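From the shared-data thread, chain only:
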Amino acid sequence: MYLKQTIAPTSEPVSLEEAKAFLRVLDNDSDELINSLIVAVREHVENITNRQLLPATFELYDANIVHKLPKNPIRTIEKIETLGEDGTYSEFDSSSYYLFRELGIGYIGYKTMPSIIEHPEAFKVTFTSGYDMIPEAIKQYMKVKIATLFENREQFVVGVSISEFGNKFIESLIAPYIVRNWWEQET
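Structure, as tokens:
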């Protein structure tokens, strides 16, 4: 499975102004640092939750027919394509599949199954994902993590994860939004 972001978000979930207000920073001397911390914390949140915070478009390639989509919440499936013997993709009829959600996870349901060749990228799904409105708990988690990194920037030890600096309450803010990968699921 290979996932490629084709259209990136144009903003961040926490603005520079929001972060500075939370940090109680009045001057502009630290703007570059704070902006980089916002990006780092957003990437951290997206990685640990397996979610896309802001709207973005992705292409997912797989050797098999895909049922469960990554980077939830899924907004739309733009198209599904299958790779032909000639090496070009053909669009699968959109009336042959549909998007459904179960417990906040996006899945593809098929009315008819596409046929695919044996190839590592035989199946391609183009979809958009991201929240219309980011849950406040995620934004608060991000602000606390940004503040922790900002206030302790000289104290970090190489190899120490930023998650080690939070307490159980702060970590519990993000816990309901974590989507586990299939290999992490309990059986």
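The longest strand covers residues 74-83.
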